[in-house]
Structures are given as structure tokens and as C-alpha cells.
């Protein structure tokens, strides 16, 4: 069992706990992007285990009649071992998703993995339209990547970027990242036929996207993390397509630590839970 202190950010240790969360969220109009916690594997065995766990989860989601999808980290299914292992495991997951008519997102990790991730996505997107990839507005290369992705049938999630990247290739100041995020949104709303996912909790970015949607009519969805602005997620779902990214699994401690340390209010929440006030 996940201790109550971490259950704000993590949907459970087991698929059964996760699916209970998915089902409760669906009643509130929000669908779930399920992520099994795990990353940076250097051996094939844990990568295969997570691949198989995702395949089983896709079947469980289908059997339960739920509208959830999954999101996979490249380094959790073998990119750290080699591109061939990554592609083999991703292929098995996408095949299983196709059997169940489910959607597969590919998360984006640090910049040395960008090309391999986008290339694998591009190959799958031309074969199966229910795949999506994440791109990071902090990377200076992203507008060019978006122009290439605009012609593919899948979906693209735009995030600000969670990795500490060098100044030569990335915007590092908050204001620069926000400006780049807005520019990328403009490009997507103008050049994509739809399939835009706004992966941000930032009310300013969400407002920018809704304005572009009203002007240009391009379809989009909003994605936020479990435990962050959840009331806003439910409110936005009355008008827009909203998805919550919900991690689950036994490796929750380091994820919980990251979420807690990134914002003062999350740290206060955790400390209050410890001292019981
Ligand atoms: P921030 O700049 O962190 O915050 C801006 C504003 O948002 C704040 O001023 C506040 O108004 C509001 N806000 C933010 N957090 C909170 C909070 N806890 N409570 C209340 N208000 C808050 N990164 C990757 O590099 N690769 C990925 O594959 C990836 N996938 C993601 C998937 C999803 C669905 C999401 C939501 C994020 C993902 N990220 C990913 C992380 C992303 O890159 C950012 O690090 C993260 O979302 C924080 O940026 P932000 O846009 O939310 O805005």
C-alpha cells in the first residue's frame, strides 16, 4: 500500500489500485494516462518486465471498459540498453494497444534521447494513429521537430521540459521557457490538424491554448499530473478534453520525492501530513 502521504501523487502500487483511481476519475469527466513508475534501466530484464506489465495493463483497462491510455518512458523499456531493445519493446506495447484499441504515449527524456524517441514515434505513427509523443518547449530544436511532426497522424504533447539541459541547446530562464511554450503552441495550432496535448498546469499556457482554439478551431486536450490542480482538472473537463497523468507501481518513493521538492506548497503538504496537522 502507498502511504497516505504519497497517495496524492501516486495512484497505487498495483494495477487494481490504479484502475480504481481511473474509474473514480472517469466519473468526474477526467480520463487517465497511466504511467508505471520506472526509468533508466541498464539491463534487459526490468525493461521486459515493464513492457509485459504495460501489455497486461492495456488488457485490464479494456476488460474493465475504461477509457484510459498509457504513457511509457523510453529508458524504462530499453533505450539505455540500445535503440534496438527500445524499438522491440515499444513495438510489442503498440501491437498490444492496437489489439485493445488503446492509445500509447511516449514520454520524452533528456536531450541525448530526443532523436531516437522521435524516430521511433514517427515510424509507429504512420502505422497506428493512436500513438503520441511528448516534446519539450525548453529545447531550442523543438519548433523544427514540431514542423516535422505536423505531417504525422498521431498526437503531440507539449510540455515545458523537466530536465536540466545545457544553455547551448535549451532555454533556461523561466521567462524564456514560457515564451518558447507560447510560440510552440502557436505553431501547433496553426500547422497541426488536431492532436495537440497541452501538458501544463500553468493557467497562462492553458488560456493561450484556449484562445488559439477559439480563433483557429484546432482540436486540443489538456493534460495535468495527478495531485496537481485537481479541482481545475475537473472544472476544465466541463468544457474541454482533460486527461490526468497518474503514476503507479512499487517505485513510487523517488517520484514522490521529486514532486514534493519542486514546489514549496507540496513540501508544506507533505510536512503537515507527517506531523498530522
Ligand atoms: P510551471 O512553470 O511549473 O508552473 C507554472 C504555473 O502553473 C505556476 O505558477 C502555477 O500557477 C501553476 N502550477 C504549477 N504547479 C502547481 C501546483 N503544484 N499547484 C498549483 N499550481 C501549480 N516533462 C518532460 O520533460 N517529459 C515528459 O514526458 C513530460 N510529461 C509530462 C506529462 C504531463 C501530463 C505533465 C503535466 C507534465 C509533463 N512533464 C514532462 C513535466 C513538464 O515538463 C514540467 O516540468 C511540469 O509540467 C511543470 O511545468 P508547468 O507547465 O506545469 O508549469
From TrEMBL:
It catalyses: L-proline + a quinone = (S)-1-pyrroline-5-carboxylate + a quinol + H(+). Signal peptide: none annotated. GO terms for biological process: L-proline catabolic process to L-glutamate. Pathway: Amino-acid degradation; L-proline degradation into L-glutamate; L-glutamate from L-proline: step 1/2. Keywords: FAD, Flavoprotein, Nucleotide-binding, Oxidoreductase, Proline metabolism. It comes from Halococcus salifodinae DSM 8989. The keyword Flavoprotein applies. Its cofactor is FAD. Pfam families: Pro_dh. InterPro entries: FAD-linked_oxidoreductase-like, PRODH_bac_arc, Proline_DH_dom, Proline_oxidase. GO terms for molecular function: nucleotide binding; proline dehydrogenase activity. Residues 19-269 form the Proline dehydrogenase domain. Its EC number is 1.5.5.2. This is proline dehydrogenase.
Amino acid at each position: 500500500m502507498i502511504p497516505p502521504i504519497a497517495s496524492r501523487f501516486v495512484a497505487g502500487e498495483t494495477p487494481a489500485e490504479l484502475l480504481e483511481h481511473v474509474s473514480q476519475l472517469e466519473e468526474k469527466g477526467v480520463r487517465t494516462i497511466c504511467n508505471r513508475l520506472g526509468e533508466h534501466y541498464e539491463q534487459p530484464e526490468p525493461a521486459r518486465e515493464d513492457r509485459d506489465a504495460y501489455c497486461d495493463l492495456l488488457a485490464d483497462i479494456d476488460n474493465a471498459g475504461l477509457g484510459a491510455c498509457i504513457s511509457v518512458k523510453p529508458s524504462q523499456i530499453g533505450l539505455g540498453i540500445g535503440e534496438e531493445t527500445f524499438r522491440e519493446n515499444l513495438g510489442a506495447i503498440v501491437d498490444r494497444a492496437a489489439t485493445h484499441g488503446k492509445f500509447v504515449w511516449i514520454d520524452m527524456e533528456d536531450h541525448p534521447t530526443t532523436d531516437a524517441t522521435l524516430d521511433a514515434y514517427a515510424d509507429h505513427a504512420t502505422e497506428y494513429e493512436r500513438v503520441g509523443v511528448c516534446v519539450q518547449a525548453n529545447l531550442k530544436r523543438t519548433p523544427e521537430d514540431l514542423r516535422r511532426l505536423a505531417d504525422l497522424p498521431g498526437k503531440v504533447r507539449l510540455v515545458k521540459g523537466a530536465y536540466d539541459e545545457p544553455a547551448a541547446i535549451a532555454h533556461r530562464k523561466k521567462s524564456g521557457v514560457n515564451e518558447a511554450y507560447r510560440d510552440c503552441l502557436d505553431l501547433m495550432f496553426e500547422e497541426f490538424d488536431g492532436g495537440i496535448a497541452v501538458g501544463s498546469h500553468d493557467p497562462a499556457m492553458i488560456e493561450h491554448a484556449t484562445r488559439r482554439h477559439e480563433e483557429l478551431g484546432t482540436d486540443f486536450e489538456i493534460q495535468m499530473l495527478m495531485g496537481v490542480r485537481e479541482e481545475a482538472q475537473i472544472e476544465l473537463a466541463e468544457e474541454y478534453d482533460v486527461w490526468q497523468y497518474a503514476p503507479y507501481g512499487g517505485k513510487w518513493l523517488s517520484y514522490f520525492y521529486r514532486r514534493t521538492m519542486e514546489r514549496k506548497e507540496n513540501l508544506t503538504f507533505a510536512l503537515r501530513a507527517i506531523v498530522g496537522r
